[in-house]
Amino acid sequence: MGMLRRIVDAIDPVETRSMVGADHLMPAMLAGTRPVNARLAENLSMVLAPVSAIATALSSLPVWVYRRTPAGRVADENHPIMRLVREGPNPHQSWPDFMEFIVASILLRGNGVSEIVADNGTGEIRELRAFPWSDVAIQLLGNGRLAYDVSDTNGLYYGAIGRTRRLLQDQVLHIRDRSDDGLIGRSRLSRCASVVSVALAVQEFSASLYENGINPSGALEVEGKLSPEALKQLAKNFREAFTGSHNAARTLVLDQAVKWKQISISPEDAEMLATRRFSGEELARLYQVPPPIVGDLTHGTFTNSETLIRFFAQSTLSSWCRKIEAAFMRSLLSESDRQTHEIEIDLSGLLRGDPETRWASHKIAVDARILTPNEIREEEGWNPRPGGDEFPAAAAGATS
Asked: Residue 113 forms beta bridges with which residues?
């Protein structure tokens, strides 16, 4: 049915509607707001930090394909998707690299797209080719399905730099952030462009402040009227002597009745540091990332930081896991596979760096007769031991 649908889509002469995904169409314009795009926004550490926190955390988690049986779920190590996880989805990326790329694209641009390359004979997926969202243009076909025009800007896959290929909906893994039309995701940066714009303006002001090296800024006053040449030379000499970070804090030595007059407010009066801190909190909130995760410990204590890290895993990462799992199930599994298999991103991988909590969880699992010692040893990567397939007698007695 999938092949027949692709043929119909390819020859469908009905009119199409253009829906492009290039970055230059992403900026949102509000009153007094500058255009904002992903590349510009990533100059802000408080945009880069939450995006990196989510993308690297998800890329580090194990991915499993399970087969449902009457006795329960069994990991299907021989499934083609598991081969991609172990060996890498394409010749240029490992699985963590691929996941980090896709998730970051979703967070910054609202969409993550990769081509699904399947074996012509068996239909098994052989490769997932990730493309930047800026290289993708989308057409809405007359039959209601999508076509993706993908430009290979690096020449990695289609044999020539810039060559474009049309992919049909069944040939694409497309994961979206929240959409306004159900077809194309909309980036969070465009939804809150004013917040990003203010943060960029404050950062530019700070950079200019250190670059110019005159704090506070002001004006030179002279008696009488200078000729254009003299005025130009005075400005040039002053800039060379006192502007720039290498001239910071130099003493002003003025002659010929030249006076310095302050005309601007100081950074303290403008509350620049407080503004930058607030902008950082706003951007962390935009991605549902607690400030301690991105290194802001202004209001952090040991107790609430630990709680907020738990919140990050349970509320932020778990929701992204569910979204990605659903997209994988829909796009990477065949219709028959979806009846017998499921794909899961294992959040327990977050405990890899927390041995105390991990082993406390193992003890609870053994005491509650959920996992045997050998099952735990297998999860930890250790060999089984004699008698490890039975529950300890103390644990059995405690639950009897």
From this structure: 131, 174
